[in-house]
Amino acid sequence: MKNYALTLLISLFIVQLQSQTVAIELNYPVAWPGNENPLTIVVEEVSCRHLYIKTDNGKITPGENDCGFRYFPSKVGASHFYIYNTSNNDTILIEERRIIVRQWPEQPAEFAHKKSGTISRGEFLAQSGVDARISGFDMSGSHKVYSYEIKVVRNSEIVLEPSNTGGPFESKIRERLVIIQSNDEILFEKIMAKMPGEDTPRRLNDIRIRIMK
Fold first, then answer.
1. pLDDT tens digits, residue range 155-198?
2. Residue 9: which of 195, 138, 107, 102 has the closest Cα?
3. What is the pLDDT of residues 83-128, one digit of tens each?
4. Number of Cβ within a 10 Å radius of residue 173
5. Residue that terminates a domain, selected from 41, 70, 101
6. Which of residues 3 and 176 earns the better pLDDT score?
7. Residue 205: its pLDDT value, please?
8. Same domain, 167 and 89
9. How far apart are CA 84 and CA 50, in angstroms?
10. Residue at a domain's end among 73, 101, 129
11. Does 125 share its domain with 201?
12. Residue 15: pLDDT band by 50, 70, 90 thresholds?
């Protein structure tokens, strides 16, 4: 069952062109923008060191071996690979290949690695701010948080309601948050984050944190 699952994660395209077989192997069935996508390109009867690869979406850099490459798409949508043979002091186009760069699934906003929950006052004040980590993939990183609103609720009344720009707490906001105390509830709302390869930020989930007694 494990081997079958791994097979599903590999997208293997083979095309016969002028008696040469071109194989492109991606670690995933699609590419993801703003992140490294390892791939292997092999052309029959052409040494890997003589392969030159271009793309119209992002960039491709050499990998750890001759046939390995790293693909970094810059935007969501179609992408084309142009595979050249550079042997014999010439540059000949062997193949043009189209792949899809997929939009990122919505990733949850978190505070202290929580979407909601209870933490101590000291733990709260030790946090850097709100984050939107890439999760559920064999990769790591974070989406860019642009802004969010904070509400400190005490005895059903809002005692503090600042807005923060960026993911980490601004210094002026951090200074104001020292007023929090046991049983306060802190709400992070209207969290806007931009996913790699997208032009406009998305609104993510709200976060509700309670300070322990």
1. 999 999 999 999 999 999 999 999 999 999 999 999 999 887 77
2. 138
3. 999 988 888 998 898 988 988 877 899 999 999 999 999 999 999 9
4. 16
5. 101
6. 176
7. 95
8. no
9. 8
10. 101
11. yes
12. very low
51 and 71 assigned to the same domain: yes
Domain enclosing residue 203, as ranges = 110-211
pTM of the model: 0.66
**pLDDT of the residue at 142:** 66
State how many domains the chain has: 2
* Dist CA 17 CA 95 (whole Å): 8
CA distance 178 to 19: 71
> ∠ CA(121), CA(181), CA(163), 5° rounding?
85
Q: What is the CATH number of the domain that holds 78?
A: 2.60.40
DSSP secondary structure letters along the chain: -HHHHHHHT-EEEEEEETTEEEEEEESSSSB-TTS-EEEEEEETTB-GGGEEEEESSSEEEE-SSTTEEEEE--SSEEEEEEEEE-GGG--EEEEEEEEEEPPPPP---EETTBSEEEE-HHHHHH--BEE-B--SSS---BPEEEEEEEEEEETTEEEE--EEESSBPPHHHHHHGGG--TT-EEEEEEEEEE-TT-SS-EE---EEEEE--
| Edge-to-edge strands, sheet with 37-43 | 11-17, 20-26, 37-43, 68-72, 59-62
Q: Is the pLDDT of residue 79 over 60?
A: yes
The partner residues of 208 in beta bridges, in order of sequence, read 116, 187
pLDDT at 198: 79
